[in-house]
Amino acid sequence: MPAEAAAALCAIGRRFHARGWVLGTSGNFSVVTCPDPLRLSITGSSVDKGALETSQILDIDDSCRVHGGFGNPSAETLLHFEIIRRRGAGAVLHTHSVWSTLLSDSHGLDGGLAIEGYEMLKGLDGVRTHEHREWVPIVPNDQDMTRLAREVGSTLDRHPDAHGILLQRHGLYTWGASLAEAVRHIEILEFLFETIGRTATYRTRGGQHGIAQDS
Amino acid sequence: MPAEAAAALCAIGRRFHARGWVLGTSGNFSVVTCPDPLRLSITGSSVDKGALETSQILDIDDSCRVHGGFGNPSAETLLHFEIIRRRGAGAVLHTHSVWSTLLSDSHGLDGGLAIEGYEMLKGLDGVRTHEHREWVPIVPNDQDMTRLAREVGSTLDRHPDAHGILLQRHGLYTWGASLAEAVRHIEILEFLFETIGRTATYRTRGGQHGIAQDS
Amino acid sequence: MPAEAAAALCAIGRRFHARGWVLGTSGNFSVVTCPDPLRLSITGSSVDKGALETSQILDIDDSCRVHGGFGNPSAETLLHFEIIRRRGAGAVLHTHSVWSTLLSDSHGLDGGLAIEGYEMLKGLDGVRTHEHREWVPIVPNDQDMTRLAREVGSTLDRHPDAHGILLQRHGLYTWGASLAEAVRHIEILEFLFETIGRTATYRTRGGQHGIAQDS
Amino acid sequence: MPAEAAAALCAIGRRFHARGWVLGTSGNFSVVTCPDPLRLSITGSSVDKGALETSQILDIDDSCRVHGGFGNPSAETLLHFEIIRRRGAGAVLHTHSVWSTLLSDSHGLDGGLAIEGYEMLKGLDGVRTHEHREWVPIVPNDQDMTRLAREVGSTLDRHPDAHGILLQRHGLYTWGASLAEAVRHIEILEFLFETIGRTATYRTRGGQHGIAQDS
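YS: structure for the whole thing
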């Protein structure tokens, strides 16, 4: 099962790297291979996600001991544990796209970002209508991982309905019951970030409606 | 013929997913394999379009009974039937791009979007000159599929020349006599949406090099 | 030699389609396989450039008679002849990108577009320094191909140093002594169009310089 | 070792070409195969980086004598030598992206560009926190390679902490102890240029959702 998980994470690495979401060794991915006692397959620290090899996926337990694979688990492993514990997630994915960085920066002082009215929201687990309002909390970035993990944990508790969380000027964390669901959540949230970012720029043109006549 | 249709729809899934037009299980595709009695090959509900397998393409009849493939037909199958019936279409494609979402949102109150003067319009079935004016109707999104199908149907009747229709904050439906024609219509309309969206933003610049006078 | 030319044009089709430069059967490509009497390998009319097959490349003479391949030569074949005759070109490529469409539209009343100061200009045949000023003429679009070919011809004569020409709201024509040179010219001009388009939008931010301090 | 280096540079060519960072024969790459006496594997002049073949990678010494491969070393080889000598680099990469061209142009009069506060900065060699402030010097472009190499050299000396350098309206030079590190630096800096460029445009919108107060 760790072997299968490792192959799946490598495929996700190539897929997300092609979109520019995990450039320069950024991003990290994990999938739970045994819930109790916890065993996690997680990308090693500082590896190129566009050329991931299965040996770079580590099989770790909940004390971060490495049982398989080469290298060290990411310093951000604590965030993965926090999300798995509080959401019962089966997989956690972290991307680092241009649009998530831009929005997490520009909306950082608001403490989050509201997304509503989009059909695409229905792809988020449990959402049944485009009239859903999704609040994506934004947490300030921090190099103290213990403190950041605590902050992420308490943010998850304060926003029990959130499907993702942004670290400011850093990127997106989302999760799912399965790896496929976590991939779907990444694609949906990244799509919505790009849509919101471009729409705001588009609307500065001078009024929300009525360009039909000049195009 | 369903086998051939399924393989073709899988290839379209990979192609559109690579462009970011069907992220997160969004979008759905169908092709008529027998016009009478109607048999349709259609993507199953909630499947990853970037990794479509032929077993995820359903062979259905006009009562939505599944004769082949695994899973359930999309809730939006009713929209496919509506388009096939009113346009005599041989294939229906639905994408969910950033630009179609943006324009369907910003121009929703206008009830549609005019596109004219582009050479690319000549790729739409029956259009012979770039001087053509294409009106793309925009229909409000709705989770009641019966009501939405009725609204799409009456919109198609009111705009007999339209080659596509936008659902607000949701995406594009287009069609063709063949699957190849439907693919061509998707590429043309998505291209034009991006061009119109970027042009409007560009023109707000205020007029270097004589742009002021022609906007 | 036509077989080799056909394979090369198919590869270019996939390459340009991947970048979104020849969506929806737009664009066409030709390469001279014999200068005298002229024999040209050219893409057939209305074919998908992302899935070009060698049988869709036509071997034609200077009267447009087809000696090999299936289908009809593009109506725009006359423009290819015009460019080959006046520039002595060995290959002609026509793309249909978002940025070339946008700029050919917004700058159409100026009759052209100046590009200067970019290192990338040095990749154009005969250009030795970034201080070069390239004038890209813009010709109004026209469905009368004989008249359009005449207009393109006279524009080429009036601008003997031009490496490309834009058809308004239509796209780019460029050429080269060889197919490789024509591909290089496409990539350079498309790059410069995107750069110019984005730079103009960027600069509306309010002043050309001085954002260093807030980023 | 030159054979291995050549294969690695070809793979980088395809990877960067796919992203549009080395269009139209732009860009060049080198890797040190022996530090003393210096032997360098470097891309030949005027080759298509999207279709690089190992025979187009030249094995040269510090007098630019070619010991293997076909073609001539790039005129910009002098810049590679300068960077290798002053930074002790094991690899040097030069890209030519839209965003680096745009920013090197718009910020040219400032003499450089500051980037700070981004998590992605931590991927740069020796950077431990997102609170790092990276100054990317911008050097005016010049066709006199000896003079340009001298200017690049003195700029490197004045900014001993810089991880990259922009040539105005020309592109990015970065480097690393290894080829993998240089690739990582390219991806990080290109990501940050795009992020900064889009963020500046986004912020001109004027302040929805609390953007006004933090800009």
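YS: worth flagging: The two ends of chain D are 50 Å apart (CA to CA).
IM: good catch. Also Residues 206-215 of chain D have pLDDT under 50 and may be disordered.
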